[in-house]
């Protein structure tokens, strides 16, 4: 309880100091006196901790005691600083000159430095050696044992009385009677209080003198200040006091920028944060407008009418975001709530602003990253699509022409693969800089984008065919000189395709497709050139080029999806397996048939990564259905010859099985008859797959190479009859005979038979009569996405 009493006692000076600050209208002298009383508070706190033996150990008490000794030690230079303020604020110019040789900034700083050295010595064992626990009756406290340098503390006391003497002499020279009386008595009582406080150096006083000294400081100052300002307090307007109290509470509780302006834009209130932001003193801003202070003229002009209307209305208005310019010139963003306040004397607008600069910068950074290429800093595909759409909307209204240009670097893949991706990236950066430089110098309205890899696009607003060709020639000229990468020179050329709005298309997708087609035309014709689009380019060859180009990014852009078609047991009508079928929906080409893109994928080798994705996705879907509680079904996956020829194919299949943990007997790989061309090398690989537990099925049997001589050598489990035979067998006896023959061959080789393309009940019945085991086709179900096939065909486990 005694400790609590001492702590409460320590708070009295700071409370009095705040009171003085208000009474003296926050002048410099009141601020220094507040500092003096704050140090008196710290003085009392260091004594309070010496009575805290029940709460803390000796090390903790010693630490806080030494820490708060900052107060009693720094009282000395602070009193000297008060004398300096007295000279500056209360004496006449002549007297200031007389005292300036002794009381100036340098001597104030020296006094603080000396006091701080004394404080630092107090942290050493030569200053305060130890704490001794003393028990006198019910009083138990720690008392400091001073070390060999204890004399520095006595020296600090001597300096205090020297400071009081100086201040006393200065106060005698003050002309204003009330101020002189206040200062003289303040010095007298401060001296008496400090003199009492020095008795703390004797343990027999039980550390009580400091409490008395603190009370002397606080009470004497409070009485003196009250006497001096009694008339001011009595004459305060009650309503004004309430308004100030409200405003001060807002300022004190809210760390944001707060200010109020009357209907003429003059500041009536602002907090320190806002004043510091503007680089001005609060008092210098009160009563003046932004125009007079020349603050944020560009921003403020936009809102003059808005703020005037708001001040004269009763509605609360939020301006969500606005920019301010700090005194440093830095532009910051704030979220501001502006509220009109009406008084009898007039109206005002109170504003509370929260700094959101960091958030805005983060948002801008995220937006930049979302719309720009991370390597070159150029706008990316997303920005290109957005800008092109906006341009076309404007062009339609204005009935004007515009052009877009696709640019692809010739043989860049060779450089990238030969030298490495790091060198390729450096080359892309240099190409980007060179093209940007051309646009800035001669084509300011144009804008360049990087779509990915070595593909760039340029939007040319208001360019016609002739303008576009001129620009294309300038671009080609850029590449005549080599690019210096790490002290080596590399040469590369571009292929450029151009499409013109509205001649070559009235929407973004059409223009993009036609510019891309024109670019591929250039590549086919020898590269390092440009070509305007024309309708003759819409041939199958260029369709193939478009498919090949889009196919390269289809996996990364997640354009593929697997559909599933059930395989039905003709005897029981139960579902026994699912065949996974690849579908491709490209944003430019739309839905592309597998018959159209699979062959291109095989030619280019892209079937390898696509095949891995299909196998992994299909088997992962199988596992997911099992986890959802459905009965286990086999999943059938088509495998091309190009995949089987890949030396890593078997290992890749093993990895998928191991990673997913799926039973190999649930996996069916469908191969084609074309493996007969590689029969000798395929048999060992197929046997390895078979040893893993995977089932093998020959797809589209009867349409490919003659493989009957190898049929008994392959480790097959089933044959799939091509749909071309099944769909026509009821109208064509020859097809009917072929189906019967295939079923008979399969039965002789102990293989299951699956018929594809079953579209009617009659076909299903005939196949069942022939002895065909399984079937699939539109009669049962067309291929469906995973979610639809689950709802219609999967059966929950018992």
UniProtKB/TrEMBL annotation:
Keywords: Membrane, Transmembrane, Transmembrane helix. The chain crosses the membrane at residues 6-25, 32-51, 63-87, 99-121, 151-170, 182-202, 208-230. InterPro entries: Biofilm_reg_signaling, EAL_dom, EAL_sf, GGDEF_dom, Nucleotide_cyclase, PAS, PAS-assoc_C, PAS-like_dom_sf. Residues 400-535 form the GGDEF domain. Gene3D superfamilies: 3.30.70.270, EAL domain, PAS domain. Signal peptide: none annotated. Residues 243-289 form the PAS domain. Residues 318-368 form the PAC domain. The keyword 4Fe-4S does not apply. Residues 544-797 form the EAL domain. This is PAS domain S-box-containing protein/diguanylate cyclase (GGDEF)-like protein.
